[in-house]
């Protein structure tokens, strides 16, 4: 028999980490489980996307190192203002993958100073349990499984990665294309309503599919939104699709 999934309300009741709580509260307030992935390369495009999608998303996912005109004052300060105005969190998809000391430097130093503005970050767990200790002031989403064709995140890798994710107090969730235990939030990228792939190894599923079969909590959508003619309309479409798919997955 298919197991029931937990609702956001029940996950909120047992949430331990302040970032998990915030994400679930925003999800319930906005009736959204959508994270927009801002894979754009200029500050203007990043801020435009944040302004347009802001009301419909729970978080904006950045790859801050692809912004060619990055400038802390001109990029991050207005981005933080938009996050406050539209009530969404900032998720830096840095995918740290080194020893703890190096990750700590990458997290706190350089031009991006991720520690100063990101609410949560992604990290590989390939460096082991202690490599995640440095992300004290943010939430960590552990990369457990990837969406791309031929990924090395096999069953046995995912199992070991999950052990670290479930036991580390800084970890709030996992990125994966497979089910995870209900006490960790599941973030699923590789979501697109129009395409099944991008010709570069990315593999897409629909919101319906990921909520029904993976019991995902949050969908991450990049090109489906920022490449759309009307990014705001596309965000609203994914928001509604995601929310309806979540409601249906509660009934099963
Ligand atoms: P798109 O929807 O345009 O394919 O973008 C997906 C986003 O999610 C990208 O920013 C990518 O880095 C990220 N991502 C992914 O696609 N698969 C993963 O397994 C993990 C990711 O972070």
TrEMBL record:
Which EC class is the enzyme in? transferase
Reaction equation(s) it catalyzes: orotidine 5'-phosphate + diphosphate = orotate + 5-phospho-alpha-D-ribose 1-diphosphate
Annotated metabolic or biological route of this protein: Pyrimidine metabolism; UMP biosynthesis via de novo pathway; UMP from orotate: step 2/2; Pyrimidine metabolism; UMP biosynthesis via de novo pathway; UMP from orotate: step 1/2
Where's the Orotidine 5'-phosphate decarboxylase domain?
Answer: 33-238
Q: Which UniProt keywords apply?
A: Decarboxylase, Glycosyltransferase, Lyase, Magnesium, Multifunctional enzyme, Pyrimidine biosynthesis, Transferase
Q: Name one GO molecular function term.
A: orotate phosphoribosyltransferase activity
Q: Which cofactor does it need?
A: Mg(2+)
Instruction: Name the Enzyme Commission number(s) assigned to this protein.
Output: 2.4.2.10
- The protein's assembly and partners: Homodimer.
Q: Which family does it belong to?
A: Belongs to the purine/pyrimidine phosphoribosyltransferase family. PyrE subfamily.
The role this protein plays is:
Catalyzes the decarboxylation of orotidine 5'-monophosphate (OMP) to uridine 5'-monophosphate (UMP).
Q: What is this protein called?
A: Orotate phosphoribosyltransferase
**Species the sequence originates in:** Chryseobacterium camelliae
High-level lineage = Bacteria, Pseudomonadati, Bacteroidota, Flavobacteriia, Flavobacteriales
- The coding gene here is pyrE
